[in-house]
Structure formats: structure tokens, C-alpha cells
Amino acid sequence: MGGRHTGQDDERPPLAGLLSGADLRAAVARGDVTTVMVCVPDMMGRLKGKRLAAQGFLDRIADGHNVSEVCAYVLATNVGMDPLDGFDLTGWDRGFQDLGMVADLDTLRVLPHMPGVALVHCDAVQPDGTVLEVAPRRMLRTQLDRLAELGFEVRVGLENEFVLCDGQEPVARHNLDYALDHPPALEDFLRNLEDALPEAGVPVEATKTEGAAGQVEITFPYGPALRACDDYTVYKQTVRHQAGRRGLTATFMAAPFTGVGSGLHLHLSLWQDDAPVFAASSGEELPETLRHSIAGLLSALPHLAPLYAPNPNSYKRYATAHSFAPQFLNWGFDNRGCAVRVTGHGDGTHLEIRLPGADANPYLAVAASLAAIVHGLTEKLTPPDPCRGDAYADREAPRVRRDLAEALAYFDGDDLATSALGAEVVRHYAVAAEAETAEHRRQVTDVERERGFDRA
Predict the structure, then answer these.
(1) Quick check: 250 and 164 in contact, CB under 8 A?
(2) CATH code, domain carrying 355
(3) Residue 118 domain-assigned?
(4) Total domain count, the chain
(5) pLDDT means per 10 residues in the chain (456 residues)?
């Protein structure tokens, strides 16, 4: 696991998890770490960057320099990493200039599944050092700052589903929800993932198989919001690494197969003076702050959908009733069919936001949710009555957006979205949504050929 220990060094425990700067310097001096991956989360939440010689990385941070540069198109592209027109940040008219990478040393960690390698998250900045408002980490920080001004700290626990496949087929044939006996390939993958994540500084609360064939759910414990999202990006990279080593593929599509949906559920609460402000006594009488937050989520999230449902495929997850993905913008007590679920007990009472799919960028999904909560708190909004029955039969609640084009129409230039995020951010992510919509409109699909090839 990364170290090359001999002699008396054999008594030293192997490197694992988060590192301080002093830890890294010592590890580099010993030869335990030879490479540092410097990473910027891109618009999809994937880690993009470079592998630097470890000593060179240390020299750069000691001099106070940016640790490296990254082409601006990393934050102005699509899932295929194609350079796109239309962004104010960059384009062919600006030559796709470089952005600086400022290392967040609080995120330094080793990756035991990649011997000799450390990883650090970076913030992308303009060449003159000014912040980049459209960068996902910056967008989340902006919303955390807004809530801090209102006197609140945010804690987040993420819960993600993905489907593990061998080729194009799931590794398991049946519904293994809550099962504790798994096919050998799936059992081996889960065991190694459960070992690798804590060693990479990513604590795991629970692992389980889910309701679709080959579907896995990983739940992470509560913690500071930015740390939760940083850990999540390392988690996704580790999942893909562990799957690839076994000749498997993990898909984080929101709807990888017809009738199958994978989510990224956000468990979220606000704290003040180290105490949870959503804490509720027995019964259904909710604290005022929690009521305003629910109302803000239901009011604002329909205007922010491209941040938590960024792809045309994202909306197919909402298409099937009784799929545990919401179809209506409603809320309820411990109701998994609702868009917003009040769950937990006493001091543990919190919100579960079930709209984001597995394809969502966690920074953007959490930022959108926090922006919506700020809207509810500042406007002192009141939520509708909770859904007390079948959430899929709640015809009085507004419908979740049906597709990305509809979501874009309520996002681009929208007053609420602009007030919550800023015009620069809204336009940037509108361009990305427009590009995705245009690409899918021009593509001929297998379904179209199957239904019309010899019958149209």
C-alpha cells in the first residue's frame, strides 16, 4: 500500500487517509509518496488534473505558487470532453487559456489502491488569481457562506446508487435489495471497496445491494458539506478503479436501463452553536427553520434542475411511478416517494432531498439545495401540507420537470435562479444544458430504429 518499507521501517504503520503537509513531506522524504495528483472537480463532478512529481509539488506550495495549470475547457465542456462554443469563460475566440490550480491542503490524502500516489483537491482560479464563480467547489462555498451569514452551519451525508456491470450486463441477475449473499464477483468487489475507501480517508456508514439487478448503494456519514463532496469525488474514482481492475464497469447514469433509476440522495441539516436546528420533538410539529427550508426547496429547486439533473437521461429516472424516484414536488414524513423527505428522530431529524440522480455533480446538487433553503429562510416561506399517502398520486403537487429542455426553460435567465446563483453561473450552466439538449436531439437512437426502421 504505497510504502517501500525495509528494516526498522517495517514497524511504521502504512500511510492511510488524510495527510498534513508535514506528513506529506516526511512521506516524500522516505520515498513513500512519489506522485501527487492535483485535481479540479469538473462540471460533471469528475476529478481532472495532472500527476506531479511529489518533490516538485512541495516546492511549489512552499513558494506560494499555484501548483499547476489546467486548460479552462475542463470547466467548459461536456461529458465527452469536447471543446464547446458559447461559454463566456473560454472558447476558440480566447484560445482556451489556462486557469491556475490552488491546492486545498486540507484535502491531502493518500490512495492506498494507487501505491506511491497522493491526491489533493484544488480550486481553479483566473490567471490573475481571482476566484472562478462557475467552478463547482466555489459555487458550493458561495452557498455555505450565504448560510453562514444567516448564522447556520451545514452538515451533509450523501447516499449514492450505481449499477455494477460485466460488459453491458449487471453482475447480478435479480433484485438483491438488502441481501447479504451476493454473487462472487459482486461480493469480491464490495469487500475490496469497503477496505479501500476508509484507507483513502473516505468513511463509509453502510453498504448494501439495491432493488435493481447489480445495483449498489453506499451511504456516507454526516459531516461538513465541502468535505462530504470532496470525499464523494474520491469515492467515485475509487469505485471505477476497483471495478476496472476486475474487468467490470460501474455506471453512475441516472437511468442506466429502462425502468432502473440510480439516485444521489442528499441528507442535510442546519446547525447553530453546535446544535441541530432541525431537531424535532415527537409528533409532526416542525421547527420554523425546518418549515422554511422545506418550502424553499419545493419553491426553488424546480428552477435549478440543470444543477442536479444535468443530462437528458437524468429525467428518465423520474418517468416511472413507484420507482422511489420522485415524480412530484412534494414532501412528507418518512415517505420515500416524495421529493423531500423529513426523516430521523429528535436531534437526528433532517431532510433527505431525493431529486438528484447518480449522474449529479455533488457540489452542484448540494449548492442548489442550499440556495433553495436560503430562499425559503429569507422569504420566510410556508410549505404546503405534507403528502400523507401515495406520493405518486399527489396530483395537487407540481410535476417534476419532464426533460432537460423544460428544465432549461425555467433556469436560463430565470429571476429566482439568477438571484440564488448569479447571472454568470446561470448562463454558464445553461450553455452546458443547451449543448446536451442539442446533441441528443440530433442523435438517432436504437429505440427509434427498433420502432420505425421497417415500419415508418
Answers:
(1) yes
(2) 3.30.590.10
(3) yes
(4) 2
(5) 41 78 93 96 96 95 88 94 92 90 96 92 93 97 98 97 94 90 92 94 95 95 96 96 94 95 97 92 81 98 98 95 94 96 93 97 98 98 95 94 96 96 97 94 89 88
